[in-house]
Amino acid sequence: RLQLQESGPGLVEPSETLSLTCTVSGGSISTSPYYWGWIRQPPGKGLEWIGSIYSSEITYYNPSLKTRVTISVDTSKNQFSLKVTSVTAADTADYYCVGDRGDGWFDPWGQGTLVTVSS
Amino acid sequence: SYVLTQPPSVSVAPGQTARITCGGNYIGSKSVHWYQQKPGQAPVLVVYDDKDRPSGIPERFSGSNSGNTATLTISRVEAGDEADYYCQVFHSSPDYSWVFGGGTKLTVL
Lengths: 119, 109
Description:
heterodimer; A: mainly beta; 6-stranded mixed β-sheet; 4-stranded antiparallel β-sheet; 10 strands; B: 6-stranded mixed β-sheet; 9 strands; globular
């Protein structure tokens, strides 16, 4: 069974770049036919899809974040990553990495990691 | 972009039936998925493809979808069902996107 684990800094300064990595275990990221993605949840608010990547190169982004977001895959490390540029306090959230087997729903989920944007 | 609308809150007494709705334009033509999120935890898929349950999810959880409304029904509600519930669809036009509803807080009285 696939398992996902997020990692990265818990504190990012305003205007800087938020970078997170998701490590996939229990299977190969390159041979598993998943859409690998990121979802975030600001404190006390709902879930927001950030973006997804398929076959290591086809990316889909939330239009509201598209200009600031990049998702990529590192098959050698069995990881995929998220970068969000020019962050503000509004980017403070729990960030979850997720997999979609192509059926349209997310399973599995990582446990989530809180990223706070503050100086 | 596609919008999903959920009531902010639903309250129900233990043993009763809770119904949480998810509204969207012609949502009946899409597959709707539901997640349960308890405080401090990652969301968990409880219903997929409108009405199917993943392994380990009690039969008390069921779903339906028709017209402009999808519904998650929780029968014989227990205290442990108190959580936030989110509906979600995959939308393919003009580009692929995964859309969530705003979430519904289920309170067990």
